[in-house]
Amino acid sequence: MSQETKTDFGKWRSFFWPVHSYELKKLLPMFIMFLCISFNYTILRDTKDTLVVTTSGAEALPFLKVWGVVPAAIIFMLIYAKLSNILSKEYLFYSAIAPFLIFFTAFVYLLFPNREILTPHASADYLQSILPVGLGGLVACYRNWTLSLFYILAELWGSAVLSLMFWGFANEIMKVTEAKRFYTLLGLGANVALVLSGPAIMFVSNVREKLPPEVDAWQYSLNWLMTMVVVAGIIIVAIYWWMNRNVLTDSKFYDPTEEKKVKKSKPKMGIFESFAFLVKSKYILSIAILVISYGICINLVEVTWKSQLGLQYPDKNDYNFFMGLFSTCTGVVTIIMMFIGGWVIREKGWGVAAMMTPIVLLITGVAFFSFVIFRENLGAYIAYLGTTPLFLAVVFGMIQNIMSKSTKYSLFDPTKEMSYIPLDQESKVKGKAAIDVVGARLGKSGGSFIQQGLLLVFGSIALITPYVGIAMIVFIVAWMFAVRSLNKQFVALTTDAKSTATPSPRLANDKKETVTSVS
Predict the structure, then answer these.
(1) Neighbours of 308 (CB within 10 A)
(2) Are residues 30 and 182 in contact, defined by beta-carbon separation less than 8 angstroms?
(3) What pLDDT, in 10s, does the model give residues 298-318?
(4) Which residue from 242, 163, 71 is spatially nearest to 433, judged by alpha carbons?
């Protein structure tokens, strides 16, 4: 093999697999851990939507996100920050994940089978009679409070376990050079999870023909889904325990002495001092704008799409089957996007990679809302295709969600997590807790507040759709400005860190010139 051929082969190998063999001991456990967390995230996401949309209606979603998820996220963040000053990092992880696994077990065996006994029909009917029509979704949240509680805990899994606990752990033990090579590959775990969880959801949702008539098919499906969630949760805990004893004790993979020096150089701050620090930090605020804008934009689109989906599939198993198909397609597309995203981050830089997600959301979001708003004018063309406007709206929304989620997993999440790495330990731990748990919830609640206000005025999701589309465009533009600002700060911080580590005056001057040219 010629030298030129070897060089070309090396380039292609680094494109698809930029990992040294000795690094697999660190990468593979993290990959499996992320796969299991994402597997649960997909099952919980699809199941919570099925439960709420087919029972309470899509109008309940904005109220649940604001009056249920946000208070729960704040409570979780406060408890987590308090426990972080008391428990070791290892026991903090166990203490945070255990309540989720206990609740999902209790829900499927206690709360859901007895939901009719626990439903306050009388007081809910009274509230329905005295409140405006636009608050019907809020009454539905109260009436079906067991399902609402499941929705809240399922939503928190994504923020608490996926964003805060896993990525916090990854940022703590990864170097910037490792993150550039590993993070997109870790993201493949999320998409392998989608490819696995999608068919699993479809299989357990398509069981009615195999069960006797007296058996509740949805209860049967739910039992299997939550069993998978608990088993995957146990695997997550086991891997984390193993890594603390077999990986983090190896100096090749983790050097705790550097972390101790950082901790001694900066005293711990209390909860309220942490919030004050975040407000004063332009860098942290820029990250927060990214997270909040994404949450608002995706929420504005999803609620409109799920309202169409609930009309198309009113049966729980049918709805969940479609969501399983959606998750599978999302996984396949995102796996392809992961390789593209990894190349973009390595070759084009952080700024280009971070800007791609809002651009994709803008294009696909405008296309979806345009079809929903003007589909009645396309009746002749839709009839020619042999389908219905409602089904096509579901398909358009599915395409939009697949593209937005694939860019999130392949570009938004890796670039967002990389932006934490140059920060000191205090900013990483408490700044990340505030942004990922509360900031992400505020993003979704912001979209929900917009929808709630519009629902009070117009009364239905169908009537508020044009205004929701306009709001989405406004927040995407703000998101793009935040990316541009954060890119300049990120490049400056990472270049300063390299200059400090290499005390060559000539190299320092070269890097300063590079920062100036990039900015």
Answers:
(1) 25
(2) yes
(3) 888 888 888 888 888 888 888
(4) 163
Cβ atoms of residues 205 and 320 within 8 Å? yes
Q: Is the dihedral angle over the CA atoms 86, 90, 91, 97 positive or is it negative?
A: positive
- DSSP state letters, 264-323: HHS----HHHHHHHHHH-HHHHHHHHHHHHHHHHHHHHHHHHHHHHHHH--SHHHHHHHH
Taking the CA atoms of the chain, what radius of gyration do you get in angstroms?
A: 24
C-alpha to C-alpha distance for 267 and 263, rounded to whole angstroms: 7
Q: How large is the greatest C-alpha to C-alpha distance in the chain, in angstroms?
A: 82
Residue with tokens 């999302």: 330
Phi first, then psi, for residue 270 (nearest 5°) are -75, 180
Check: pTM over 0.85? Answer yes or no: no
360-398 pLDDT per residue, tens: 899 888 888 888 887 777 666 776 767 777 788 888 889
Look up residue 213 and give its DSSP letter: T
Backbone φ, ψ for residue 174 (5° rounding)? -105, 145
Residue with tokens 């539905």: 140
- 252-266 tens-digit pLDDT: 666 666 544 444 444
One-character DSSP codes across 234-248: HHHHHHHHHHHHHTT
Cβ pair 519, 492 in contact under 8 A = yes
CA distance 159 to 172: 18
Measured distance CA(185)–CA(17) in Å, rounded: 8
Distance separating alpha carbons of residues 310 and 516, to the nearest angstrom: 52
- List, in sequence order, every beta strand (DSSP E) within 86-201: none
Size of the chain in residues: 519
